[in-house]
Design goal:
578 residues; alpha/beta; six-stranded parallel sheet; 16% strand; 19 strands; 23 helices; globular
Length: 578
């Protein structure tokens, strides 16, 4: 045999190899995770390049927290874990905020972070970006795993996916030390090690007794109410929920991210009569909603003096009785629970008495009529109501558009004023009531739905992630951002009580032009001072589909302390001695 033939034979005899880079990519693709949100850097820069080369969409952000928020809301919108990719230590910590947010909100998400080598970290010898990331992540997410060997990548990814979406969804951390990426194993063995997750979120059927108990309690009601939470929206059991509401005839109150499950203009919607229905109802059925601070923990003056009986549908048994007694807990996935309730209701169900539904309708119509003139003003500078009145009309004309909303006054007023017509079209700050989700949510909403996005942002809230307008421009996404600019946090009129040169802690630069930021990156920037100008600018932006930022000048005196949750702000009872 010639030397050439020997060389060819030797090459052909060599086993085909793969490595950690490719196994992670293959494991994600095998399970339909084809989008990654993240920030490149050591040790995951090449992984991002390779993932893109293998057909995964890799979106690079300016800050890991925004990338994490994008991944979290991607999980909510798709029911598949959103994937965020970060570097080690500081990058991991930036992403961890979003992971904790995902867990609190029950959004499926996987944070994948590169990390330093175990033997150096464990001896605390001072490696590059040294940190025991797994230990830090564990208390803040639903599950956390570390993969040390390439042969275990398939199992590690599978466990992360299953943990993220099964039961009550949440955030999962996957720790990948730098050496793992370059580990080489036999390609056939690597392929065999991959796991395609089967039935990751199986239906959890409620017990028949719990369904009968819930229906018995509902039948006894004189003034029943259904509260829809974002869990109901996440479940994508839209038709069943609509059928339950309409068949039962019970008024419903949607929490902010459940708006649109049934249109806010639906005759049974009690959104504009919230105070009345919470106070006067006698039986309340919670579907995918929790009795946390957003519902005053199910007690106190918001709920009035009338005795209440609660029915709660939730996949997590430990949620029951968390604040008040739940007389009829229904444990299971929302789709299965609602379907079982529908079967039990049948065709002979007695709808609520007309005096209850008529009282709600009258209160709702009166409140809407009172609000209408305020929404039609054309003041310059604008107030919140005039500006939101315009945006309310635009969403009514474009019900398929995604609405992102954050801020204090901007959030509180928008969720009450802007009606939604379709499910999962409104995404906002969620359970924690945080700021900073805006631009990450915008990017993920555009990527995951393919629909135009309208963001209604307070100027303070926008500041948390405003640099991501460059990311929006870089990917040429159909996002229109409206920044309600009143020169400060809550309002821009506070003064420094000392008379010193520093402005008050809640005051921003007067007359700031956020629209110039968008122009700097090639997007469209517009400055508007009246509702009429705002209407024209937003319609043009939504029609053209180009990245647009509209600086909406709001009266600096408009706004109240902490929006509608000012009561959560502690007040000093002491007066300074002179």
């Amino acid at each position: 045999m010639t030397a050439l033939a020997q060389n060819i034979a030797a090459v052909e005899a060599e086993p085909e190899l793969t490595d950690g880079f490719h196994l992670i990519i293959d494991a994600l693709k095998l399970n339909g995770l084809n989008t990654i949100y993240g920030v490149p850097g050591i040790p995951i820069t090449d992984f991002g390049r390779m993932a893109q080369a293998e057909g995964i969409r890799v979106l690079s952000f300016r800050h890991e927290q925004a990338a994490g928020y994008a991944a979290s809301i991607a999980g909510y919108l798709t029911k598949k874990p959103g994937v965020c990719l970060t570097v080690s230590a500081p990058g991991f910590l930036n992403g961890l905020t979003a992971l904790a947010h995902a867990t609190t909100n029950c959004f499926p998400m996987i944070l994948i972070s590169g990390s330093s080598e175990r033997e150096i970290v464990d001896l605390q010898q001072g490696d590059y970006e040294e940190m025991d990331q797994l230990a830090i992540a564990k208390p803040l997410c639903k599950a956390a795993f570390r993969v040390l060997h390439a042969a275990d990548i398939g199992i590690g990814v599978a466990r992360a996916i299953r943990a993220a979406v099964s039961g009550r969804p949440g955030g999962v951390y996957l720790d990948l030390p730098a050496k793992l990426f370059g580990q080489v194993i036999d390609a056939a063995a690597g392929e065999n090690s991959l796991v395609k997750v089967i039935d990751a979120a199986p239906a959890q059927i409620p017990g028949p007794d719990s369904i009968k108990r819930a229906l018995d309690v509902l039948k006894s009601a004189k003034k029943p109410l259904i509260i829809l939470g974002k869990g109901a929206a996440y479940a994508q059991a839209d038709d069943a929920i609509k059928a339950l509401v309409e068949t039962s005839g019970i008024p419903f109150l949607p929490m902010s991210m459940a708006k649109g499950l049934l249109p806010d203009t639906h005759p049974q919607c009690a959104g504009a009569a919230r105070s009345t229905v919470l106070k006067d109802s006698d039986v309340v059925m919670l579907i995918g909603a929790r009795l946390n601070w957003l519902l005053s923990h199910g007690k106190g003056k918001s709920w009035g003096d009338s005795p209440k009986k609660f029915i709660q549908i939730d996949i997590e048994p430990k949620e029951m009785d968390s604040n008040v007694e739940i007389v009829a807990p229904v444990v299971g996935d929302i789709g299965s629970c609602v379907a079982a309730l529908l079967d039990g209701i049948g065709k002979g169900w007695t709808k609520p008495a007309a005096d209850w539904t008529s009282a709600i309708t009258k209160k709702r119509d009166d409140n809407i009529a009172k609000m209408a003139p305020r929404l039609m003003n054309n003041n310059s500078p604008m107030d919140y109501h005039g500006a939101l009145g315009v945006l309310r009309t635009i969403i009514a004309e474009r019900p398929d558009a995604m609405l992102v909303n954050e801020g204090a006054n901007t959030l509180d007023l928008a969720r009450g004023i802007v009606d939604m017509y379709k499910p999962r079209k409104r995404i906002d700050v969620g359970t924690w009531g945080i700021m900073g989700i805006g631009m990450g949510y915008c990017i993920a909403a555009a990527i995951e739905t393919g629909k135009p996005v309208l963001a209604i942002e307070g100027d303070s809230a926008f500041g948390f992630s405003g640099m991501e307008v460059e990311t929006i421009c870089r990917y040429n996404l159909p996002v229109c951002i409206v920044v309600f600019n009143n020169d400060g946090i809550y309002r821009g009129t506070d003064v420094n009580p000392t008379g010193g040169d520093d402005v008050a802690p809640t005051v921003f630069v007067k007359g700031a032009r956020y629209d110039k930021m968008m122009e700097a990156f090639g997007g469209i920037g517009v400055n508007v001072t009246s509702p009429d100008e705002l209407k024209r600018a937003v319609n043009e932006a939504m029609d053209c589909g180009k990245p647009t930022l509209i600086n909406a000048v709001i009266d600096p005196a408009a706004g109240s302390e902490s929006g509608r949750i000012g009561n959560l702000n502690p007040q000093s009872l002491l007066k300074k001695k002179k």
